[in-house]
Design a protein that fits this description.
about 350 residues, alpha/beta, TIM Barrel, Bacteriocin As-48, Chain A, 2 domains, eight-stranded parallel β-barrel
């Protein structure tokens, strides 16, 4: 069993990866996608977007991070995969599932699920370019408009030499609307032999058990459910040994994480990005914690980070301090709000 932390563009960046992996239970992370067009990116660009690459490819808590590439040019993807895997040796992931219109319009993400032959070409060329011993994984949805070619796409990815495949159990057309069709991952398991990881609509330990039963997968990828409940991975792992494990991270335990999150946001993001990032996380946290609802209502009107600083100072005396994210003392670079094509 493995529990993976999902890539979520504009939300689950290196800052939130740092915070969530401190809680525990996550075995590996996948980065937000790095858009590859017709250029061999320099190492500094990869380091800016996935700064863990400068630190042996792990978060400060020691959890491995695998960079994810998105594009449609097999040769250019292979060249960039060779470069990024040479930085930290954590392997590379390929994005065949992003549902956003701007990505699909530029022939990336889930749009490629209409072309299984191209999936094969991308995976096979990347596999040849990445050193032996370093994994090449991929993530796909069930399809673009429907799921009729899901098995065909998975077989193409397997034939190309992928070592692992994450399946988000919805089509691009489904977006993020429930339900996730976990049983369709089970259908894919009947035709491929490579390891599969189930993803989609896992908000609780009970959801994890149901997903495993329906999909036949022991390994899971957690996205919004983990952001809403930072203890979710621990609860899923514990449930195997202690059924009935209490759910949720208590507010008292979460408060220091919120403070550290705000410290890192203040260190690495522009002032105009900071308050929105905090509101974004609190918005998901309030699914499970009434105190998060109260906090969200308190900060939602703020646009000036100094107002948030003042709010934190009144939060049980917790006051954001300067942060040095790694022992080496090297700070991460500022990142954009979104990595669009």
């Amino acid at each position: 069993m493995s529990l993976l932390l999902a890539p979520m563009e504009g939300l689950l960046d290196f800052i939130l990866r740092d915070i969530l992996t401190r809680v525990g239970g996550v075995d590996r992370c996948v980065s937000e996608f790095i858009r590859i067009t017709d250029t061999l990116l320099p190492e500094r660009v990869f380091a800016r977007l996935v700064p863990e690459l400068l630190h042996a490819g792990v978060t400060p808590a020691g959890v491995p991070v695998r960079p994810q590439l998105l594009g449609s040019d097999p040769v250019c993807l292979a060249d960039n995969a060779a470069r990024v895997t040479g930085m930290a040796g954590t392997g590379v992931d390929l994005n065949f599932g992003c549902p956003t219109q701007v990505v699909n319009r530029h022939h990336g993400g889930a749009a490629l699920l209409e072309q299984p032959e191209l999936l094969y070409q991308i995976v096979s060329q990347v596999r040849r370019a990445v050193p032996a011993g370093q994994p090449v994984s991929a993530k796909m949805r069930l399809g673009l408009h429907d799921d009729r070619r899901a098995e065909e796409c998975a077989l193409a990815i397997e034939a190309g030499g992928a070592d692992e495949l994450v399946v988000h159990a919805r089509t691009k057309a489904d977006g993020y609307r429930p339900p996730a069709y976990w049983e369709r991952i089970g259908d894919i398991r009947q035709v491929v032999r490579l390891p599969l990881v189930a993803n989609g609509e896992i908000w609780s330990a009970a959801d994890a058990l149901a997903c495993r039963a329906a999909s036949g997968c022991q390994s899971l990828m957690l996205g919004r459910g983990m952001v809403a409940n930072p203890a979710l991975a621990l609860e899923i792992a514990a449930l195997q040994h202690a059924p009935g494990t209490p759910s949720g991270l208590p507010w008292d335990a979460l408060q220091p994480l919120l403070v550290d999150f705000w410290r890192l946001v203040g260190t690495h993001l522009r002032p105009d990005q900071r308050t929105g990032r905090l509101k974004q996380w609190l918005n998901l946290l309030r699914r499970n914690l009434p105190q998060a609802q109260t906090a969200f209502e308190a900060v939602r009107r703020f646009h000036d980070p100094r107002d948030v600083d003042a709010w934190f100072q009144g939060l049980r005396g917790l006051k954001p301090q300067a942060v040095v994210p790694y022992d080496q003392g090297q700070q991460f670079a500022t990142v954009p709000d979104k990595m669009t094509p």
